[in-house]
Amino acid sequence: MIELTVNGKSYKIEVEPDTPLLWVIREQVGLTGTKYGCGIGRCGVCTVHIDGKPIHACGLPVSEAAGARITTIEGLSRGDVLHKVQRAWIDNDVPQCGYCQAGMIMAVAALLDRKPKPTDADIDAAITNICRCGTFQQVREAIHMAAKA
Amino acid sequence: MGQGMRSLFELPRFSRRSFLVASAAIGGGFTIGVNPFGSIAVAGGVENSPEVTPWLTIRPDDTVVIRSPFDEMGQGSLTGIAQLVVEELECDWNNVTWELPTPATSIARERVWGEFRTDSSASIRASHEHLRKTGAAARMMLVQAAANGWNVPVAECTVAKGVISHKTQNRRTTYGQVAALAARLEVPKDVRLKDPKDWTIIGKPVKRPDTVDRVTGKQIYGADIVLPGMRNAAIRACPVFGGKVKRVDSGIAQAMPGVEKVLRVGDSAVAVVADTWWHAKMAIDAVVVDWETGESASVSSASINAMLTEGLSARDAFLHVKTGSSSAAIAGAARRIEAIYDYPFQTHACMEPMNATALYTPARCEVWCGSQHPDGALEAVARAAGLPLDQCDVHRVALGGGFGRRLFTEHVTQAVRIAKEMPGTPVKLLWSREEDITQGTYHPVMKAKLTGGLTSDGQLAGLELRLSGQSIMTTYMPSELDNGRDLEVFRGLYLQGREGLEYWAQNVTIDHAMRNTHVPAGFWRGVNINHNAIFLECFIDELANAAGQDPLAFRRNLMLFDPKARAVLDAVAEKGGWSNKKSDGRSRGLAQSRTTASYFAALAEISVDGNIVKVHRMVVAIDPGYAVNPAQIERQIASGAVFGLSALFLQECTLKNGCIEQDNFDSYDSLRIAQMPKIESIVMPSGGFWGGVGEGTACLAAPAVLNAYFAATGKRIRSIPLKNHGIKLV
């Protein structure tokens, strides 16, 4: 039995402790906004926050997340009030297929927490997510928009 | 197409009756449907609000629901489709949504919406007339219904934003209020469309209406489907294409947590069904399979390369273009230039790995999946289930990327075969990323030998282009071969027309030595134009260099017939600072192509420092005839650039012992934001035709950069990816 806190709610979950957090979030907690893309920590579509820091959930054993504050894309907004990154994403029409965007948005939200006014070089260093649709130009513009919001 | 040829992907998709057909009541009969905007609902395949025409219904709250035969995979064309309808319908843009009828509904309605297939940048160019007409017809019917109710002549009624008014009688109603009455009227046969100069929403950069769910995690993709009592499956197919399962040792896997079943899927794959996908994945990794692989297990990239090299000079080639006498012209020319180019296998690596969820009973089989070809998926379901088409259906879910990969349906077949072993229990089959990369439908491998002759004053006397490599149609649809010849392989090299050569073409010979491998070939964004544009546009640069001419001037001198092609090239040259070459330490390269009927040109601006390359910016111009949504076109241009640059610098699939060697994003990498050039788009619609926007930039990114690399270094690179040449993109 593992106790998890996801988006402020606590869950008691019967699961092998080495199960990746990603799959516990998707299959036991039932939040499917966090995606599976590679399983080896290379693409970033599974990015969630652990105590406010971005992490690839596909490579983290769930046992290591027990007791931590886990935030997924579903928990980024406050009720109906979207996070400024989500608003910038809508204003700049960023997503194409959208599959990678939850991970991208979580990575950007964490960057802005750490660096409220990131430079292009900060963005290049911090945002390493893959987007096969190639939304990067809109992503960069939207990050700067969110930083000004 | 030139030479009277017909490409499979240029076929008209709608019959006249698909517009004129009268409305009909929609039968229900679907137990579970998926709302394209996300939430799984217990509902019919299409909704039951009044159907004004088969293409649109209007709810009492004035919401206009457009039924789309096309799927959304990121390209944004459902937004463009809505713009086309709204332009003529004159409803409020904010009241528009769409739904995706199922392919079984389509058959029951005698394919009133045409074919359900999303590819070839064709959604808008195939449907614009139907969609505008359906909007106009619906508007006429709605106004007629209001006029009938008020007992006034229809000509005295006006309409704006879905509100119908009669001024002198001071009457007012909305589309939603008269939709049920309008639905009973006959669809008018004589529909006049607006003059393009009067368009108010076509041509505007409106935002996509389907973005919110994509930033909140609410958008449901196939991989996210959850059905009551559902089980999860992971699969491993024979890593040597065409191989079979010989022996399965599942002892360890059977005893692992959550595992319900280990089973063979067809004769080429093994799957595990478990309570969760993670359990299924762990267990499939523990299954030991002996494969029967046959001769294909000896195929390697080297053996394929040898076969293609032989094809460069082989006598058995399909002739495509022959004008004048290239051999005589080149023999008589002052200079002869020859070069050999290579293009490798590529895979799509959609961010959402292939998946399908199937529910089988002896009486009915239903599947939920994102597909670029729902009609084909339905046929796959029926075949695998052993049921007639009308006892099957496919629910169309949002696609996490497509790029051509989701035209294929083998994962659907697998899911149904698994579900058939568990009647009454829904099963979701999700491929691992490893399965996705190693079981693809790959961009065909292609080699080319180009030979050109230059006169003493630097004119092109003759050109020969021999392609040697794989045919997609032989894999995908052998019935479409033309006496064995694959016409798709020449896309971008037709003598004229929508994917024609834009160059003067006297004394030209183009042919193809078809050399197929056991690797399944498929459609990969841009398809055959990816290699043809590299071959032709880089070789044109080689000829210009040999002739001592400026590559822009050399091209312009050969582009005699089509001012629209010259216009896009001139536009990128001007905006890209072509005439200021090298003044800023940056080098520039050009490329142009006619792709999916649109005119494309690209200029790449790079700098080279040893083995480090930075692509600073790309200037891309497109003339798509009519530009329905310039903002979405700009996004497709940037998107195509990322696709093309990823392949150019980072990607290839190689073979060893008959298997694809790459298996995840560590070995098949993709561009990151740090490597993204600034993209400057020039959208310059000249009117008079409808071209696609999604693919041309993917095709031109590579040749433009390769030409810029030559300008920077004097080194001509003729094979990709550039990582194989020790070149690193930063």
Structure characterization notes:
The complex is a heterodimer of chains A (149) and B (730). The longest helix of chain A has 14 residues, at 101-114. Chain A starts with a strand and ends with a helix. In chain A, a hairpin with a 2-residue loop joins β1 (2-6) and β2. Chain A is an alpha+beta fold. Chain A has helices at 21-29, 84-91, 101-114, 120-126, 136-148, and strands at 2-6, 9-13, 47-50, 53-56, 69-71. Chain B folds into three domains: 8-212, Aldehyde Oxidoreductase, domain 4, CATH 3.30.365; 222-294 and 354-430, Aldehyde oxidase/xanthine dehydrogenase, molybdopterin binding domain (Aldehyde Oxidoreductase, domain 4), CATH 3.30.365; 301-346 and 442-729, 2-Layer Sandwich (Aldehyde Oxidoreductase, domain 4), CATH 3.30.365.10. Chain B has 19 helices and 30 strands. In chain B, β1 (33-34) and β2 (40-41) form a beta hairpin. Chain B is globular, with a radius of gyration of 27 Å. The interface between A and B is large, with 57 and 60 residues.
